[in-house]
Design a protein that fits this description.
alpha+beta; Neuraminidase; 30 strands; 4-stranded antiparallel β-sheet; about 450 residues
């Protein structure tokens, strides 16, 4: 008897006969490889709690693309956002995907009900283990799928066919020591706008955000270089595109509504109200990674002067370089050199640098002298897993977007709380009212602070 699936390309119903490996869509003629769970010869039947969802399979495709393109950090972040689990599990899974290998899990993880499950020992929830079971099957056929155009051909919008299969793998018992939950009450989400797409107020991969003196919001997309402008209520105003050939690394806005965009070796300047380019564009001899507008209206830019270290350069609003800080971060022999990921400036003019490799925050004086550092990598509360951006509120507290949300630290560097974010948090910015804006790839969320 034929089962019914959904074509991932056109949404048309698919019919297949049990025992077949592929099926062709009658409408778009796309060749579909059936899920492993629907192939009788595989002997695998996923538990009912692991019924497949299109969003999670789409995320898995993106994880595979990121892993194989060398962007394993983003793949790890995406994996944990979709399937949960600890950092080590995510890293191991991404490494396996990048190598085209199945994920290795011990049989006792799923086969025994008398001993404590391995998932409980590693900190994985029951739901996460069920999803990893599905992931093992999916990743194991990645090399085959590549020949048919990638993971998009899965045909998994899988309807009742999968969920009706009786489970043959017992679910593990609940985790004995659940991960700490984000501290409630520190901030409240009061506005959300945007959704996935390419039209106005839609985003595909938004990672940068800025706010001008009037409260207008600017959102930049990493791959396409598209910049969208919104008013303070999140209503679309206009859009434009910078350099389409290079990724948009960062953007910032000054109080007058001038938007600065870092792409390759240029800092483009735009009129935020119209999107019209302003002259001159600042040009440098190096790749630009990040930028920030200081309270006095200057521009602080991170440029890559060599593979190991980066340089901070201060510009006037007219594009004149007034200060160069070479290798501003201290070198520790016992650990790899830390590379500057993002930069911001507090109300006292001190420079706060978000470092990668050591996953720490470095505080510099306005002159660029190292003052102190705080933070470390790990999975404990307040540890940095995959930090993406840094911002400072009106009271000097420091905010870092990370895989698990937005981490909040006191001005001295003590961990205070985590603001939960639905999705991977990337760009951060505060407006004059001390409201926090977070861009999370497909949407923007505004928070008011309660403490």
């Amino acid at each position: 008897m034929a089962e019914t699936l959904t074509c991932p390309s056109c949404g048309a119903p698919l019919s297949y006969q049990p025992g077949k490996v592929t099926v062709t869509c009658d409408y778009c003629h796309n060749e579909i490889i059936l899920p492993e769970a629907l192939r009788p010869q595989s002997g695998f039947a996923p538990p009912a709690s692991a019924s497949l969802e299109l969003g999670q399979l789409t995320a898995l495709r993106e994880i595979a693309q990121l892993a194989r393109s060398g962007n394993k950090l983003e793949a790890i972040k995406r994996f944990r956002a979709t399937f949960g689990g600890g950092l080590k599990e995510a890293k191991d899974a991404v490494e396996a995907i990048a190598a085209g290998q199945p994920i290795e899990m011990t049989a006792t993880t799923f086969a025994t009900s008398t001993a404590e499950p391995a998932a409980a020992q590693s900190g994985l929830s029951a739901g996460c283990v069920a999803w990893l079971v599905v992931l093992i099957v999916v990743v194991s056929v990645v090399p085959v799928l590549a020949a048919f155009g990638g993971l998009a051909i899965f045909g998994i919008g899988v309807s009742s066919a999968v969920s009706e299969i009786n489970p043959v793998i017992p679910s593990p018992s609940p985790t004995a020591t659940p991960a700490p939950t984000p501290t409630p009450g520190f901030a409240t989400a009061v506005l959300t706008f945007g959704s996935r797409g390419t039209g106005p107020a839609h985003f595909e991969d938004a990672r940068s955000i800025a706010v001008d003196g009037k409260g207008n919001i600017y959102v930049g997309e990493y791959g396409s270089g598209r910049i969208q402008a919104f008013n303070s209520q999140g209503e679309f105003i206009t859009q434009w595109t910078g350099d389409e050939e290079y990724p948009l690394r960062d953007l910032a806005a000054d109080r007058q509504g001038v938007v600065y965009v870092a792409q390759k070796g240029k800092i483009w300047r735009f009129d935020g109200a119209t999107g019209q380019p302003l002259s001159p564009a600042f040009e440098t001899d190096y790749w630009l990674d990040a930028l920030a507008v200081t309270p006095s209206g200057e521009l602080l830019v991170v440029q890559e002067s060599n593979p190991a270290f980066k340089t901070l350069v201060r510009f006037t609003s007219a594009g004149q370089a007034t200060q160069t800080i070479d290798q501003p971060l201290p070198v520790e022999k016992s650990r790899p050199a830390s590379s500057i990921e993002k930069v911001t400036v507090d109300g006292r003019g001190q420079i706060l640098v978000l470092g990668r490799n050591k996953d720490a925050v470095y505080r510099l004086s306005a002159a660029g002298e190292f003052l102190d550092r705080f933070g470390s990598d790990g999975d404990a509360p307040g540890s940095l897993t995959a930090p993406a951006d840094i911002a400072v509120d009106g009271r000097g507290r420091i905010y870092i977007s990370d895989f698990g949300g937005v981490l909040v630290f006191s001005p001295e560097g003590s961990y205070l709380a985590t603001i939960d974010v639905d999705g991977p948090a990337d760009g951060l910015v505060f407006n004059d009212r001390d409201e926090l804006f977070v861009v999370a790839r497909e949407k923007v969320v505004k928070y008011t602070l309660n403490k």
